Amino acid sequence: MRHLIGVKEIWLGHFKNFRYLQELHGKNYQGLEDQVRKAIFEEKLKKIVQHNLEYDLGMHSYYLGINKYSDWSSQEFSKNMKGLIVSEDHTMDLYEPSGDMKLPSSLDWRSKGYVTGVKDQGGCGSCWAFSTTGALEGQHYRKSGKLVSLSEQNLVDCSTQTKGCNGGWMIDAMEYIIKNGGIDTEESYPYMGEQNHCHYNKSNIGATCKGYKRIEQNETSLKQALAAVGPISIGINVGGDFQDYSGGVFNSPHCSNNIESINHGVLLVGYGQEKGIDYWLVKNSWSDQWGEKGYIKMSRNKNNQCGIVTYASYPIV
């Protein structure tokens, strides 16, 4: 039963655990809101306990857990923690894989120095910015051998083709970086979690971008591209139990691959197999207190579950 909740205090009672959640994440509710949040938390708790009992019986390949979003409604979560707005008015070159490339059985670009630490978009629909910087950080490392954390706030404030905390599209962000002549470093232009006036400074450029390529919409091509070039920017549908995911291989029939349902930008950094199930390794931007320290293993070779191959691209540096 080790997967039941993820915090030992659960056995001390629902109310105390709600207070534990508040204390852990610096939350302080008053009056009616406190009651509403507690009710949401307790309903979430019931769902998590039931799912994880089924997980222990072998009925699921992933388990759920309490996190800092456990007192948020699904509607609130959707409004604040997604933000992908697809714009298809771009002509993109197609990645062409090498026919004789031998692919490894598993891959994790984190171990090769291509990936910065997990970041947190906060209550801002800026996932598109984090997906963009993650892919560019990897390509910059591939070319220079230096891993530089890049500024999502630079994109949120300055990319006029996107809508800041109200959503955006990774290709539009890459277009901004190309036309702007670069993007500032995270250190020089730190993330604030809200849209402000643009104060980009070219003397603080951390990376540049010359163009981008898309990847053919199938899992074989995506695997080849990932192994050949490094981390890939992707769009997915955040459906099913995504909000409460804590570990294992996320395999949910409720996570649609319908093109209209793709609503979140993330970074693909690897692939592998766990307990006989193929997975994609994905870096999210919901802090390291969500999922497997900020990551999720998503089903691979499951008919494009969650739309993981539908919008895949990477920048050229």
Query: What is the percentage of strand-forming residues?
Result: 15-25%
Number of strands: 12
Spatial separation of the terminal alpha carbons:
48 Å
Approximate shape: globular
Percentage of residues in helical conformation? 25-40%
| Major sheet attributes | 10 strands, mixed
* SS summary, helix count: 7
* Low-confidence segments: 4-12
Give average pLDDT, whole number: 92
Compressed to H and E, one letter per element, the order equals: HHEHEEHHHEEEHEEEEEE
What's the alpha carbon Rg, rounded to whole Å? 20 Å
Structural class: alpha+beta
Pfam family, one: Peptidase_C1
Protein name: CTSL
Organism: Cordylochernes scorpioides
Domain Peptidase C1A papain C-terminal: 103-316
Compile the SSE list and pairings.
Layout: H1 14-24, H2 31-56, E1 62-64, H3 74-81, E2 93-94, E3 107-108, H4 127-144, H5 152-158, H6 170-180, E4 183-184, E5 205-207, E6 211-214, H7 219-229, E7 232-236, E8 245-250, E9 264-274, E10 277-283, E11 295-299, E12 312-316
Parallel strand pairs: 2-6, 8-11
Antiparallel strand pairs: 1-8, 3-9, 4-5, 6-12, 7-9, 7-12, 9-10, 10-11
What does this structure look like?
The chain is of the alpha+beta class and 317 residues long. It has seven helices and twelve strands. The chain has helices at 14-24, 31-56, 74-81, 127-144, 152-158, 170-180, 219-229; strands at residues 62-64, 93-94, 107-108, 183-184, 205-207, 211-214, 232-236, 245-250, 264-274, 277-283, 295-299, 312-316. The strands form two sheets. Strands 1, 2, 3, 6, 7, 8, 9, 10, 11 and 12 form a ten-stranded mixed beta sheet that branches. Strands 4-5 form a two-stranded antiparallel sheet. α4 crosses α5 (152-158). It is globular, with a radius of gyration of 20 Å. Mean pLDDT is 92; it is low at 4-12.
